[in-house]
Automatic annotation (TrEMBL):
This is Uncharacterized protein. The keyword Transferase does not apply. It comes from the Bacteria. It comes from Halalkalibacter akibai (strain ATCC 43226 / DSM 21942 / CIP 109018 / JCM 9157 / 1139) (Bacillus akibai). Keywords: Membrane, Transmembrane, Transmembrane helix. The chain crosses the membrane at residues 7-23, 29-49, 56-80, 86-103, 124-150, 206-224, 252-270, 276-301, 322-348, 354-373, 378-395, 401-424, 436-457. The lineage of its organism: Bacteria, Bacillati, Bacillota, Bacilli, Bacillales.
Length: 461
């Protein structure tokens, strides 16, 4: 029975994605209904097979959606439309994994690491190198970069280094490097949705976000240096990235950078030059570049195998993400269609006035509050974009977007439960609280303060 329901879920997810892409070309109502139907089937199948503890937040969101529709005596068609509210996010979340196919095809990262192995003998240099590599890889691999980076470095520890010191150093470097990517990386779903939801200009937002990310990396290094002295951490590493397979690494770094540039450049060209919505541009460019990569490397057989695995195995593991996305979409649709979104926006402005806060600062804290309530970044962005419209004060949309993204970045490292924390905990076998709040609260608060000041300074120009 479980196997049958899993197949139903996978086929419904594929139908949803296909209907979405077709609807962007052929605007027939049948494809909209197909998305809603596929979303409904996915929702039911997940509710049947997923553990009850995982369903607490989704059921709460679904219940709130139904309550809003019932209290306002609105038509049930609102809920049917809400099932496709996240139609642009679901293909993005699924297809972004294709980038990892390029990274794992050849030892690109090993070639990159071999360039810096002679410069990481001290703890500070090792930490800086690891954080920078984590940031770079996660910039186009998103959360997959956490596990990838951890596994690249996990065998470098010497016996003289304690497990506590090693886990703290490696895990905080990876987490801090990763969390800053959300501020500027176009392939990150939260960033892409904020850009689409606020209509912020892509390139100015990327540049301003990149500036804050670089400041954040420097901040992370200084905080580690302080924590290293405070905790008396002594990390000894073996900087040895030799190629066990005797593969040729010459020229791989440049080839890799060319493909990354092609990916990023393609997204900007589609979005800016062809005026394609970024939520559509990102998955389309990812598919085109990935296909082109395997064609150029004459590896179409492997490419087909990877697609087969995605369809038969990997999609079945996306239930948790899909239930959160679909339930958040129902709530956003109910809020938008019933007018409750405007009411909540009014309460938000009243609270900002009462606390005498700047609106941009208020947006950041709202995202953090949602994170501590259990909302993952993507549903939080969708929820806010459906509520917070017409921000007063004449602020530019790129600063509004950056304020929201700052909240996401802080939430990722200090909230009780986030996907990055789950991934890093699965690698070092430490608790979510230790990997998150205990080890990163100083960094999170410091990034919040520095980020708020950074954004306020930008408002002066």
């Amino acid at each position: 029975m479980r196997a049958f329901i899993d197949k139903v879920f996978v086929h419904s997810l594929i139908l949803f994605i296909l209907a979405y892409f077709i609807s962007t070309i052929w605007t027939e109502v049948i494809f909209l209904h197909a998305m809603s139907a596929a979303g409904f089937i996915m929702l039911i199948s997940i509710l049947i097979v997923m553990p009850k503890r995982v369903l607490v937040l989704p059921i709460l969101l679904i219940s709130l959606s139904i309550a809003i529709v019932w209290l306002t005596s609105s038509p049930l068609g609102i809920l049917w439309s809400g099932l496709r509210e996240m139609s642009s996010i679901i293909p993005l979340v699924i297809l972004i994994t294709l980038i990892s196919w390029i990274i794992s095809h050849r030892p690109y990262v090993k070639a990159l690491l071999s360039r810096g192995q002679n410069r990481i003998h001290t703890p500070i240099r090792f930490y800086t190198f690891t954080a920078a590599i984590s940031h770079f890889i996660s910039s186009f691999m998103t959360v997959g970069g956490i596990v990838f980076t951890f596994q690249m470095f996990q065998n470098l520890k010497r016996t003289e280094t304690s497990n506590q010191a090693w886990d703290f150093t490696l895990s905080t470097a990876i987490m801090r490097g990763f969390t800053l990517t959300v501020l500027w990386t176009a392939v990150h779903p939260a960033f892409a949705y904020v850009i689409a939801g606020t209509n912020a200009p892509l390139i100015p937002t990327v540049l301003k976000g990149l500036g804050l990310a670089l400041i954040g990396l420097v901040l992370a290094i200084f905080i580690f240096k302080f924590q290293m002295n405070q905790r008396k951490i002594n990390v000894d590493v073996v900087p040895d990235f030799k190629n066990d397979m005797n593969e040729r690494l010459d020229g791989l770094v440049w080839k890799f950078l060319i493909w990354v540039a092609l990916l990023m450049g393609g997204i900007y060209t589609f979005n800016q030059g062809l005026d394609v919505n970024i939520l559509l541009a990102v998955p389309v460019v990812i598919m085109v570049v990935t296909t082109l990569y395997f064609v150029c490397n004459r590896a179409l057989a492997e490419y087909k195998q990877r697609w087969r695995r995605l369809m038969t195995v990997d999609l079945g593991n996306k239930k948790k993400e899909m239930i959160l996305i679909l339930s958040a979409g129902l709530l956003v649709g109910a809020l938008k269609e019933t007018g409750y979104g405007e009411v909540l926006f009014g309460y938000f402005l009243t609270g900002i006035d009462w606390l005498n806060l700047n609106v941009l600062i208020g947006l950041t804290f709202v995202v953090i509050l949602l994170g501590f309530c259990g909302f993952p970044p993507i549903p939080a962005m969708v929820l806010l974009s459906g509520i917070l419209m017409g921000i007063p004060g004449g602020y530019s949309t790129d600063l509004v977007a950056l304020s929201l993204l700052l909240g996401v970045a802080v939430t990722l490292v200090i909230a009780p439960v986030t996907v990055p924390l789950l991934l890093i905990s699965s690698q070092n076998k430490r608790s979510l609280a230790e990997n998150g709040f205990r080890w990163n609260i100083v960094f999170g608060v410091s990034l919040l303060i520095v980020g708020i000041v950074y954004i306020q300074v930008l408002t002066l120009f």
